[in-house]
Amino acid sequence: MCELFGASSSTPRTFSRWLRPFRLRGGESADNPDGWGVAFWSGGHPHIEKSPEPGWSSTRFLQLSESLASDLVIAHVRKARHPPVPSLENTHPFVHACCDREWVFAHNGLVSDIVDQWALNPSCHPVGETDSEHAFCQILAGIAGTYATDDHRPWLNALNRLADAIATRGKFNFLLSDGRILIAYGHDRLHYLEASDGCGRFALVATEPLADGPWLPFADQALRVYKDGVLLACHSSLGVAQASLVQPG
Questions:
Q1: Are 16 and 5 in contact (CB under 8 A)?
Q2: Alpha-carbon distance 84 to 240, whole Å?
Q3: What distance in Å separates the CA atoms of residue 243 and residue 234, rounded to the nearest whole number?
Q4: 218: which DSSP letter?
Q5: What is the pTM of this model?
Q6: I need a labelling partner for 50 at 20 to 30 A (CA). Which of 3, 79, 211, 245 fits?
C-alpha cells in the first residue's frame, strides 16, 4: 500500500545508500509497481520528478537515487488503490501553493471518503483523483490561517489535530514539507533514523527500515518535525512530547 522515504540534513548530501533499496521497493522487493516520484530542494524550490512506471525498473529513478544531492528529500513508490490504475497525475509526490510557499506531500494508506469533501476547500484544487491529494488540500486549508515561519507551534498543533481527524477515516501516513522543514506523520506504519557523520546531522523517515540502523518505529499517530537533520518537535495523540527551542531561519 505505497511506501514513503524522507530525508532532512544539515548540509546537501546524496542519500544513495537508502534510495537504492527504496527504489527496489517499487515493484521488486515490495508490491508497489504503479509509479514512483522524488522531490528534492535546490535554491529554496522543490524539483519533482515522477513517472507511473515501476520504480525498480526505471532508469531515471536509478540515476536520481545515485546522484541527487539535497538537504531535503521526499520520495514515494505507489501501489494504486484509489483510483486503482497508474497515471502521472495520480503519482506522488504532489505540490500545491499555500501561504506564499510551495508545499510537497506524499501519502501511504487509504482515506477514500475524503474525496467527497474536496469542494469545501476551493483554495486548493486537486489535479488528480487520489484520496491522497484531496487530503493534502484538506491539510493546506486547515493550516492556512495559522501558518507562520517564525513560530511553528500554532500551525503544527492545528496540523496534528487535522491529521488525527483524517486518520480516523482509514490509514494515513504522510510526508509534508514547506521547503524548510520535513514533517512526518506516522498513523501506524513509519520508522525513523537519526544520525550524524563527517558531513553533519541527518534524519531519515521510511515506511520500512532500509539500509543501516538503528531504525525506530513511530509511536501510533505521532508527528515528527525535522529541520536540518535535527528534531524540532514531536507530537502524538497524547499531545506535544517535545518542542524545539530552535527558531527556523
A1: no
A2: 37
A3: 7
A4: P
A5: 0.93
A6: 211
Cell of 154: 500554532
Q: Is 234 a catalytic residue?
A: no
* Geometric angle at alpha carbon 119, from 117 and 122, rounded to 5°: 130
Fold held by 3-243 = Glutamine Phosphoribosylpyrophosphate, subunit 1, domain 1 (3.60.20)
Helix orientation angle between 16-24 and 59-67, rounded to the nearest 10 degrees? 160
Retrieve residue 191's grid coordinates: 520508522
Residue 31 grid cell: 508490491
Beta-carbon contacts of residue 240 (< 8 Å; ≥ 6 apart): 157, 233, 234
Sheet with 3-14: list strands edge to edge.
45-51, 36-42, 69-77, 3-14, 200-206, 191-197, 216-217
Question: What is the tens place of the pLDDT at every residue in 100-138?
Answer: 999 999 999 999 788 766 555 567 889 999 999 999 999
Cβ neighbours of residue 121 closer than 8 Å, sequence gap 6 or more: 137, 138, 140, 141
Domain ranges of the chain: 3-243
Look at phi and psi of residue 57 and say left if phi exceeds 0, alpha if psi is from -120 to 50, else beta.
alpha
What ranges in the chain are assigned the alpha helix state H?
16-24, 59-67, 131-143, 153-167
Residue type for position 71: D
- Residues 6 or more apart whose CB falls under 8 angstroms from that of 122 comprise none
Q: 174-228, pLDDT tens digit by residue?
A: 999 999 999 999 998 899 999 999 989 999 999 999 988 899 999 989 999 999 9
